[in-house]
Amino acid sequence: MAIKFEKVTYEYPAEDNAVVAVKNVDLEIEDGSFVCICGENGSGKSTLAKLMNGLLQPTSGVVTVDGKTTATEEEEELFAIRQKVGMVFQNPDNQMIASIIEDEIAFGPENLGVPREEIGERIEYALSAVGMTEYRHNTPYKLSGGQKQRIAIAAVLAMRPEVLVLDESTAMLDPKGRAEVLKVAHELNDQGITIVLITHFMEEATQADRVVVMSEGRVVMDGTPEEIFRDRASIEKYDLELPITDAIAADLLQAGLPLEDKIYSEKTLAEAICRLK
Prior knowledge:
Helices cover 39% and strands 22% of the residues. It is an alpha/beta fold.
């Protein structure tokens, strides 16, 4: 198991009453899986993400990464956990610290004490993995939003994580940029990296192996995309929307058209409609 939550609660301190963002969560993320965590604003999904590598410590309960608790007081152990679970956040500009892209990629390995020769290899690997090798001598500030986010992912990849958490990493991007980042995420997952995608775009959730829905700090749904999006009443109950293609398919099914009851992409839905006679 890559990451395990056992009865985890997290409270943000406040002057009057503490704000409980995550409530008694049990959750397991398997090695090599692609898991999407979604929910309405304030559902606790981003807090859950920060608990995954020790950026936040549980108020109660236990989070373990590869068998090690994130609540350790040993700095070296916590450092190892954060190296194992890499995080990419919403705004790529907030994650950039260097004026040249290859320096941005090298920053993490340099702080890990990686030998210079190996840093060069890691830069090559990370930029190649996100399809940005030709930009290594450019400045990141002239890139598109999707390209910047790919560089942010590359900077994390250079530290060789086993789990990549994308915390609303596509939220500020246009459709093209979102597609670029999702493509990279799937390619990394194919290489064996565990992907945890935090998103409010339901079209992205359909591409995961597993979807976890949060509401008011709790896990309220957990299953395959087919299992989750087939339950239209629950999706609406938790203030989410069906992916547009599945909403169209559901309406067509209700109208009596003989479509299969499954998750559709734009392409597969168009093909299914064209096959109708």
